[in-house]
Known about the structure:
Blueprint: E1 2-6, H1 9-22, E2 27-31, E3 38-39, H2 44-48, E4 59-61, H3 63-70, E5 73-75, E6 79-84, E7 89-94, E8 97-102, E9 105-108, E10 112-114, E11 127-129, H4 133-144, E12 149-153, H5 157-168, E13 172-177, H6 188-200, E14 204-207, E15 211-216, E16 221-225, E17 230-233, E18 235-238, E19 242-244, H7 247-251, E20 256-257, E21 260-261, E22 274-276, E23 283-284, E24 291-292, H8 297-312, E25 327-331, E26 334-340, H9 343-349, E27 354-361, E28 372-379, E29 386-393, H10 397-409, H11 434-446, E30 452-453, H12 458-464, E31 466-469, H13 473-477, E32 485-486, H14 496-503, E33 508-511, H15 516-527, E34 532-535, H16 538-546, H17 550-553
Parallel strand pairs: 1-2, 1-9, 2-5, 9-22, 11-18, 12-13, 12-18, 13-14, 30-34, 31-32, 31-33, 33-34
Antiparallel strand pairs: 3-4, 6-7, 7-8, 10-19, 15-16, 16-17, 20-21, 23-24, 25-26, 26-29, 27-28, 28-29
Amino acid sequence: MRIVIVGGVAGGMSAAARARRLDESAEIIVLERGPHVSFANCGLPYFVGGEIEDPQKLLVQTPESLRAALALDVRPEHDVIAVDSSAKNVTVQTANGVEVIDYDALVLSPGATAVVPAIAGIASPRVRTLRTIDDALALRDRVTSGARRAVVLGAGFIGVEAAEALAADGLEVSIVQTAPHPLSPFEPELAWLVTQELRALGIDVHVGMAATAIERDADHDTVVLTDGSRLRADMIVLSVGVRPDTALFERAGIACEGGAIRVDDHGRTSVPGIWAVGDATLNVDPITGARHPVALAGPANRAGRLVADDILRPATARAIPPALGTAIVRVGSLTAALTGANRAALRASGTTHRTIHLHANQHAGYFPGASQIHLVVHIDPETGRLLGAQAVGAEGVDKRIDVLATAIRAGMSVDELIDLDLAYSPPYGQAKDAVNLTGMVGENVLNGTLSLWYAEDLDDVMATSLVLDVRRDDEWATGHVPGALHIPHTELRERIGEVRERANGRPVRVMCASGVRSAIAHRVVSQAGMDSASLSGGILTLRASLGARAQDALVVDEIVR
């Protein structure tokens, strides 16, 4: 059998390696358009910033190493220009001319190409995308040749990583994002923490705007933004998004949707004998049903392996599970990670959900170095099924998101998190880990023990309800909601009459710093016969949700007792 694979890197090389392990007699040919067939895409920003010093470290495998280890016929600089599914062959442009290669099974792993916006001056030699080894080498050369000012267009994962890396290397960095905040898949209350960390790193953050032009000068470029701002740049990193590289395959009659190749749960395309994997394929979101590509290395690697199984062992091949989109990024001293659906996706799909916020310590509070993990978790209010989770914090974020991603994949409900037997020692966690605490809060929400109100409802709450702030006096003085009643939670039982009098039949909406004390106070107020709810995540979440508006929305000099 001859297996021809178009495109290497994650999905293609995983399919090739697995195919060889399954069948020593198969002829396996990998055709790669570029010069590098197996490289670490995700490491490119860190090479540009100098954290990875040796570019050879980015080369995971070479044609020579793959031939020696796996007897693979890997052909870089081989650009597939046509597919004939009837004749079962591909036409390839090489340095020596055009070649036609027959196949028994064809695997497509073309990946995605960088989106290049149609703005004046985008062709400047100081502008570079960050998708390939050559991109990274060119950008690093700019840095080592004396570039001092960098502008990053796009604040997705790659853009944020590039901005962080360049700032750490001593450059003056500006980052520009058309969305309201960096890392647009993150909830606004967590993205605000990322924004603040970027600014703490000295990065100039411009959100809600785009570049309208790039003006070239002899020794620098100027990036002009929609608000008229002008950013001087010695180098410009273009990272505004990617699109599946599939035009050739659409012309060959392979069914695509929104530019992405349609595949079944074994990676088979609409054409018999042709499979596809990776960034160019259509993923059906397992939570919302939304249909879109997922440009992540993990799902591509796993899909490549399972496609090889389907080609060579179809009777026993496991299905490719839809990707949850689990992802993580370092931003200075913080880590931000997510899995599953976010609030916007749930609303767009009409998926009923409730959201819970937690600010649990990453390890025992009495052990030195304790810091908070800011968690947002979405659940189905009827079944408790976990729908998505996000976290930002200095330590322990990766562990918790990985556990929650596993729980979502397993179809667990939020209350089942209570029973997870997670490793505990004071330097590593708490006896009630953040994941266990998520389960406890979620169970209380499901069974009605805890009712929640949300930061986004602040204006309505202030207009219709009594806000009861149960923090300490010193916390209250740092900022509070105008008109709120302040009663520390330790005094609440003795002063419940004040709450009833001030509420005067209105609902009572309780708040504290993080949601722990207000949950206790909520139980006191509700069992006193009043309509009560606790602010999810407390004033920590409220401040992050308000963002820059917090200083105007909260009062620091008025005391209402």
